[in-house]
Amino acid sequence: MEAHQQSDHDIFGEKSTASHDEVLQFSKLxxxxxxxxxxxxxxxxxxxxxxxxxxxxxxxxxxNNYAAARLQGLEDDLHLTGEQYxxxxxxxxxxxxxxxxxxxxxxxxxxxxxxYSERFGVADDNNKTEAPFFAGVLxxxxxxxxxxxxxxxxSIFYAGSLISGAFGxxxxxxxxxxxxxxxxxxxxxxxxxxxxxxxxxxGLIICVVxxxxxDTWRALSPEMKAVANRRLAIEAAEADVDEPGGMSQLxxxxxxxxxxxxxxxxxxxxxxxxxxxxxxFFPTLTGTLGYGHIVSLLLVAPPYVFMVFYSFLHxxxxxxxxxxxxFFVYPIPITIVGWIVFMTTDSFGPRYFSLxxxxxxxxxxxxxxxxxxxxxxxxxxxxxxxxAFINAIGNSASIWxxxxxxxxxxxxxxxxxxxxxxxxxxxxLMALLLKIxxxxxNKQLDRLEDEDVQLTDREMRKLQKAAEFEGIDVATAxxxxxxxxxxx
Length: 488
Prior knowledge:
Helix content is 71%, strand content 1%. By secondary structure, the chain is an all-alpha fold. A two-stranded antiparallel sheet has the order 1-2.
């Protein structure tokens, strides 16, 4: 039996001649709601974001310990030879792409993202806890912030990794100078003991205090919960919730795998991750500048601190101008200049300055994360699956790029940095392709806005849910749905 269908004309009825401007009046929060939204955003920024940043900071400090430990005698103590250091680094990321086939449906919630991520990234105990985290945070923040707010918040979130690169190595320098040999442990062992203990303590606290979603956060009043849901529904022109039933996540996975934008973003993110692979060797790169181990660790901090503040400005303007493509693209030639300078010069000044230029690759990350949420806005099950897949493919670059940083290539690491340049070119091509696709889809949406389209029962249920979330009638909700456009 064919599903019952309704046309746009049936839905609009007398409203079929309503103007776009009249409909847009319903797509904005009222003055009272705007006042509530301001308080809501302030509460999210002050209570949610600091916790997320803190967890990500500790996550990356733990990761960066490996690079710092290399300068503290790890290779000698563990008798690592040849490419064994690179292999140990590579193993951390192998699990992200080994278990793509071990899929099963789960209930709708943050658990769905964790489930996808675990399936895309679990092989050892460390990865079992770390693999879901990054994609989980991207999905998590997309349930709290609108697309106009997201890139800047993503940059704040990603600042945790940049801060870890700065202060993690400062801590490592302090441990190297003060605890080497204490109680019979090497400096790199104390590094893992101290920072690992802090991470565990913070993680236990976060499990208790971090809320899931607006609907489940007790600190929000009913008015704030309603505004939190309504503003996301207005933005997506569709209720930001999944359909009930255990199969919704499997459908979300199917939708993600059928959307070419998922693969384009995955390749783009893989290119950025691969190009940023030098961060795992940053103390090694500063170690080629002619100073001792402690000074080499201290020299890591300034480029990261600079990029923390620059990335805030970069992504704030990306949100302000509602543009992703140009803010994704312009840092690419800057990073390429940095790698070329490092490969072709020997004096301290130009080589150290080139490290600042290389770090512009991290400015792209916040833009990329925000673009993912904008390009794949709904339904949440599809967005969750897309995040997990993109995260898996993106981190796969970290499996093979460590092998390009060969000891015989010191001090210029020509092979590794040429690979970085090639990956940045690939990232540019993916960004260009995504912009073309989104521009074309927006033109299709322009044409469809005034056409009489048939809606199935399932589509009508989603439309009714959107109307309920937004507090408007079905006809107006349909107008808003047809007026949605992707951010390019």
